[in-house]
Amino acid sequence: MPSPTDRKYTKEHEWITADGTMGITHHAQESLGDIVFVDLPKVGAELTAGKTFGTVESVKAVSDLYAPVSGTITEVNETLATAPEQVNKDAHGSWMLKLKLSNPSEMDSLLSAADYDKFVTEEAGH
Amino acid sequence: MLLSAAAPIVRKTALNAVHRAMGAKMVEFNGWDMPVEYPGSGGIIAEHLAVRNGVGIFDVSHMGDIRFHGPQALAAVQHISMNDAANLAVGQAQYSAMLYPQGTFVDDVIVHRLAEDDYLLVINAGTREKDFQWVRDNTLQFDCAVEHLSDDFTQIAIQGPKAVNLLQKLTDADLSAVKFYWVTRGTVCGIPNVLIGRTGYTAEDGFEIYIPADEATSARVWNEILAAGTEFGVVACGLGSRNTLRLEGNLSLYGHEISDTINVWEAGLDRFCKMDKPDFIGHSALAQAKAEGGKRTLVGLEMVERGIARDGYKVLDENGREIGYVTSGSPAPFLKKNIALAYVPVEFAAVGSTVKVEIRGQAVKAQVVPSPFYKRLKKA
């Protein structure tokens, strides 16, 4: 299934739209399996591109979340605190955070949907 | 997030190609390329619930097997294991462990008495070679042959309240006559004289069968079990649910609750250690440890605040002082709680005691609760 083309992607399997809404990819949720816990910062927290800011836990493992770009959190999807399995059901529809970007040009260095899908295929081939 | 890299080249069971064809997610476990979960079964939670409510099957061929036979087989087993194998009737099995002289664990084992002077010890995958070396070196004085049969069997576990119904369709052995922790032999899927144990690692009723380890036979039996189990909703289960099932049942895992630095009393396995039987390796150190009294003990924890304790996380007291560590921690799919096993000082071990678990720098509240966390309702 090709990734949606309305957003950008990271090699750490996050997606982000031009307005700063972000989540994790379908491939990520598939790799993780049953997601049981999503730990996110609060509104107002500052994220730095490439740095970890939260975690997603499946039954078996803890995975760090990496900020695709720098910015300030303006909104957190609180429903994921009680219904983290939403990410399994619809990863590209289950946003985690909304960010006010501090340096929008950082978006330019992220992957397109086609490049991300290619990256995932190559990664699986290793 | 970072997703794990491809596993290095490791050992494979005879069912490896079957798991891959089924679309299982494979992981490296103790040097073995094993299925962790099957998306086609619905993943770890669905697999776990299938075993609690119906039936699931596991490839556990990575487990090892050591046979003792000869006139002094019982004496040899008695010398290297802590439970009392003299109590076993032919066809009976028991949970036990092999110990170092200091009373710590070489491995935990299931001892099966197959015939008068014939015992089979089922051992862990990650400790196979160490265990066999240990057995050989420490049984030389007995008139008893020890054989490493680990590669001879494909071992399939059929687990859950419907396991008996499923397996009965495929065998002429009368399974209703086989009690928990007893074994029998019968024709299974047309293969004569298959060893069938009413044993498992899921805290549920179930069976483990030992069939020839060739790929064609293994695949045929695996697929026939799945086909016969359709009416019971059988699913293939991986190591992920095997771990959550055993954790709910407080069944020890080598390298976690038990190891070469943890003794029998600390691990709370007293009832499987028979100090009144004639001398066995580890006996004198355990007698001394008992007289001195233990400092730490294994407890069950339930998270009170939001968070999941994981293996190796620190346990803190209410003032934030480090007092112990988590040996195994996970969400419990059947209980729908976040649970853990942990070593803590004995003064924190009472049920109801409050402790904290350090999760990514935060002290998260947990409570000591009775374990096993889950106990199946036993039928009369």
Describe the structure.
Chain A is of the alpha+beta class and 126 residues long. Chain A has four helices and nine strands; from the N terminus they run βββαβββββααβα. Chain A has helices at residues 26-32, 79-82, 86-89, 113-125, and strands spanning 8-9, 14-16, 21-24, 35-39, 46-47, 52-58, 62-66, 71-76, 97-101. In chain A, strands 1-2-3-9-8-5 form a six-stranded antiparallel β-sheet. Chain B is α+β, with helices and mostly antiparallel strands and 380 residues long. Among the domains of chain B are: 16-62 and 152-248, Probable tRNA modification gtpase trme, domain 1 (Gyrase A, domain 2, 2-Layer Sandwich), CATH 3.30.1360; 295-369, Aminomethyltransferase beta-barrel domains (Elongation Factor Tu (Ef-tu), domain 3, Beta Barrel), CATH 2.40.30.110. In chain B, α2 crosses α7. The longest helix of chain B has 14 residues, at 215-228. Chain A binds chain B through residues 12-14, 24, 28, 30-34, 36-37, 39, 55-60, 62-66, 81, 123, 126, and chain B through 1-3, 5-6, 25, 36-37, 39, 43-45, 240, 243-244, 306-308, 310, 330-331, 333, 360.
